[in-house]
Amino acid sequence: MALFLSLSNSMCKMLKQPFERITDAEGNNPGVQPITTNANRVSWQGQVIQLTGRHWQPYDDGSWLVVFMESNSRYCMMTHYPLKPDWEQLQQDFYNQWKLHTVGCLRANGFIRNDDDGMQVLDNIEWYFDQTKVHVFRNLDRSIATHISEIQYYLRSLFDDYNPSCFDSEEAWELSHFINQQPKKVGGNRGKKHEFFPVDRFIHDILYRFGSGISPDDFLDVKPGDFPCPYPQKPMLKVL
Fold first, then answer.
1. Which pLDDT tens digit goes with each residue over 88-136?
2. Burial environment of residue 181 by CB neighbours within 10 A (0 to 12, 13 to 18, 19 or more)
3. Fewer beta carbons within 10 angstroms: which end of the chain, N or C?
4. Residue 50: what pLDDT?
5. What are the angstrom distances between the C-alpha of 120 and each of 92, 93, 97, 207?
6. How many CB atoms neighbour CB 116 within 10 A?
């Protein structure tokens, strides 16, 4: 099991961390490689938005909005920092956010039915965090960056339309909840666009990764109590 954290240049600069860049198989295009999630790996793209400059008035207090977006679902998690965070704090907050979003989504959609289910999920999460090898690098997946840039539009709309008295992590949580329920479009075969909802894909992933032992249904070739893998296990064959 592996966890890939791809951090943008601006995030690495904020953290003052000299993470290495990654390249393609030929050693080209350093720092702009696509990242993927599959059955054995989860990849998150990290980016930061600093609320400074006229564009963010009257909320231009120099605070930091840290965004992590999962590569397959385009599900985002956001944390607001009045002061610049360090790497240790950011890592811990990332894990806490992932845990909170997981439990919140599973409860809201009826997959956690009682306290025993909740404890089982929390145990699964902690086991996963303990067993998973973490890879951190300086990189920006351009396709994900396009979706992250949309967050600035939603943030500006929040400020203009609702004029909150302040912007903090609670507001960031609510904003991420709204964004994750909006449809996304990605390129598909033969240039066709495919539409999906981030929260739906996120739920399928966390059920597979953290829902072991809580499924009331049985699935073909899946251990009783577990959920199926949402990712292809074998190469897709094409009929000629």
1. 999 999 999 999 999 999 999 999 999 999 999 999 999 999 999 999 9
2. exposed
3. C
4. 97
5. 21, 21, 18, 12
6. 11
- Separation of alpha carbons 167 and 194, rounded Å: 33
Q: What is the pTM of this model?
A: 0.94
Give residue 178's pLDDT: 97
Per the structure block, which two tokens stand in for 15? 């953290």
Which of helix, strand or coil describes residue 66? Answer: strand
Predicted local distance difference test score (pLDDT) of residue 238: 46
Which helix (DSSP H) or strand (DSSP E) does residue 136 occupy? strand 133-138
CA distance 44 to 136: 10
Q: Which of 41, 229, 70 is nearest to 144 (CA)?
A: 70
Tokens, residue 46? 């990290």
Of the pLDDT bands very low, low, confident and very high (cuts 50, 70, 90), residue 26 is confident
Tell me what the mean pLDDT of segment 45-52 comes to: 97
132, 2 Cβ separation under 8 angstroms = yes
Do 59 and 159 contact (CB within 8 A), yes or no? Answer: yes
Q: CA-CA distance, 204 to 70, in Å (whole number)?
A: 13
Sequence-distant (6+) residues with CB within 8 A of 182 are 197, 198
- Per-residue pLDDT at 189: 61
CA distance 174 to 204: 21
Record the tokens describing residue 140, joined without a space. 């920006």
